[in-house]
Amino acid sequence: MPSRGLVTRHQRKTRISNMTTEQIHIAGRIGAALLGGYVFTWGGIALGVAGLFAAGMEFHDAEHLCNILGFLVFLVVFLWAFAARSMPRVWLVLLGGGGLMTASASLIQHMLV
Q: pTM of the prediction?
């Protein structure tokens, strides 16, 4: 018999299987808000820095401006992930948009070098 501090494999499976659909939905929204928000914000910052630098702004000025705006973008995206009706749309916009912005930033950087 395991001690009180140890959790058996069966107990872990039971806990996970007892999660309600509402708890899974909330966990998905939290994941979208944190992970998807990070990817989207990171892509936006990368694209902003690359675009502003290509337009002639000093690199560190572009970097600071985009990082400051990134805080606001992350806040808006984080809140939107909880307010949106469709979770697939949230994931598509955040991960797809972040990926496209990152790829665009990489293309701009490649053209500059």
A: 0.80
What is the rounded distance in angstroms from the CA atom of residue 105 to the CA atom of residue 67? 15
Task: Give Cα separations from 4 to 11, 13, 14, 62, 91 (angstroms).
Answer: 12, 17, 17, 56, 40
CB 62 within 8 A of CB 53: yes
The C-alpha atoms of residue 38 and residue 71 are separated, in whole angstroms, by 10
Q: How far apart are the first and last CA of the chain?
A: 65
Tokens of 9: 């494999």
Residue located via tokens 């805080």: 71
Nearest one of 27, 31, 53, 45 to 98, comparing CA atoms = 45
50 with 109: CB under 8 angstroms?
yes
- What does the pLDDT read at residue 10? 65
CA 29/CA 49 separation, integer angstroms: 29
- Give the model confidence (pLDDT) of 21-69 as tens digits: 888 889 999 999 999 999 999 999 999 999 999 999 999 999 999 999 9
